[in-house]
Amino acid sequence: MSVRQEATKILRHTFVYGLGGIISQVIGFFMLPIYTRYLSPADYGVLELLLITTGIIGTIIAVGITQAVFRFYYEYEDDRDRNEVISTGVISFAILGFCSLFLLSFACGALSSVVLGSREYWPYFLVCFATVWFSTLTRMGMDYLRIREWSTIYLVISIANLVVSLSLNIYFVVFAELGVMGILMSSLISSIMFAIVLVLPLMVKVGLRFSFSKCNEMLRFGAPLIVSDVGRSIANRSDRYFIRGFGTLEATGIYSLGYRFGTIIHTFVTSPFLQIWFPRRMASFKEQDAEQTFSQIFTYFLVVLTFAGLGISVVIKDVVHIVTTPPFYEAYKIVPLVVLAYIIFSFYYHFSIALFVHKKTKHIAGIDAATSALNLILNYFLIKHYLAWGAVAATIASFLFRVAATYVAGIRFQMIKLEKTRIAQLLLCAFLVYWLSTLVDMGTPWLNIPLKSLFALLYILILWATGFLHESEALVLRKAWTNIGARVLLRAH
């Protein structure tokens, strides 16, 4: 498949996958004034630490089965074998996950005391554990839709899940005034509903089959990914524990809100892109010239990612002042650096494919273990003295290390092509435009936001003017623009 055909296919699915994320973020954005009025910064900190802790536990009990299903589904050509992979994966997690979480439920009091400084939050952990089990089953059902590239069905179910969760959130938080527990209960109820909606029809379709040999293969493949995924969680989120330890729950809540804004690019751009990127890479890794094709597509992805990141960074101060309350205003300060961290981290998804293709998950586990150790050390020393600023610095340094180590490991098994000159060009342009935006301040958010938004468009113009596009790419864009103009004129007449 040519670069243009592959890029078109990925773009189409990315748009559909991303639409659900965009709708989710927009609704979440409009919910912020509600959450920041009904939840204090300390409540926000409690919620964040709960979700991080139970998320890490969920990663451990899943033993990498969700990633293994992707890898081994494409190992086989026969539909019966492929269906057996799906069925075996779901059954394996259902049994292992339930037993593990049942045993962990007896430790809720101890976890509450260690993580949140008080045993009074133990019911929160109990609700979260149940949510983890049902939500992981839901995720496996959604992953099957990705494997089959049924992006439209994926979008419909995502939006339905969002509507249910949002409605329950509003009821439990605003009307029932249950605070943090209300948010947790809404997540549990929606995860139960959609686990039933997705997993039962899935098991009917693929058949209730279990293969001990396939289960063993998937566990051997996925087990090292526990270290990888836990390491990623530590590298991304352990800073909240240190901020609570060296600071307060309030400081944790404010930092968490700023971090959430900074990761919008992951939800808007990276996450939907990965929904199709990973399965397409797995399906195409045997094709000739696949690396050249995907290196160009990755460059296009970075243009979109930096454009979105720049757009967020230039207006974030004014947006935070509009949508939140004064106790949360300081959250904006860390957002541009969090955006930078996640742009750096996006390179991992391009470099790690070689290790997945060649089943070198032990290398991934080793890299992530080293990254986690580095992150914990940096968090301790930097957050102890600089709190939120130290946390962001530790995150950037850890992401740089992880990306570099993954690249070095990956090229031992497969050539990894990267358009280095063009990537350097787009990053330099983004830094320049961001610096220029900091010189503008009209004194009111309502004027700053529309004016500063223009800087994101300036970024695209500078790329165009500096010859970023190859001639063939420019020709495709001109033709597309001409076709759009022609259609508009035809409709006008």
UniProtKB/TrEMBL annotation:
Is the keyword Transmembrane helix in the record? yes
What cellular component GO annotations does this protein have? plasma membrane
Q: Does the keyword Cytoplasm apply?
A: no
Q: The organism's lineage?
A: Bacteria, Pseudomonadati, Candidatus Hydrogenedentota, Candidatus Abyssobacteria
The membrane spanning regions, by residue number, are: 14-35, 47-73, 85-115, 121-141, 153-174, 180-204, 297-316, 336-357, 389-411, 423-443, 449-469
- By its UniProt entry, which PANTHER family does this protein fall under? O-ANTIGEN TRANSPORTER-RELATED, PST FAMILY PREDICTED COLANIC ACID TRANSPORTER
**UniProt keyword annotations, A-Z:** Cell membrane, Membrane, Transmembrane, Transmembrane helix
- Coiled coil (residue ranges): none
Full protein name: Polysaccharide biosynthesis protein C-terminal domain-containing protein
Q: Which Pfam families match?
A: Polysacc_synt
Bilayer topology annotation: Multi-pass membrane protein
Its chief place of residence is membrane
The subcellular location is:
Cell membrane
Which InterPro entries does the UniProt record give?
Answer: Poly_Biosynth_Transport, Polysacc_synth
Superkingdom of origin organism: Bacteria
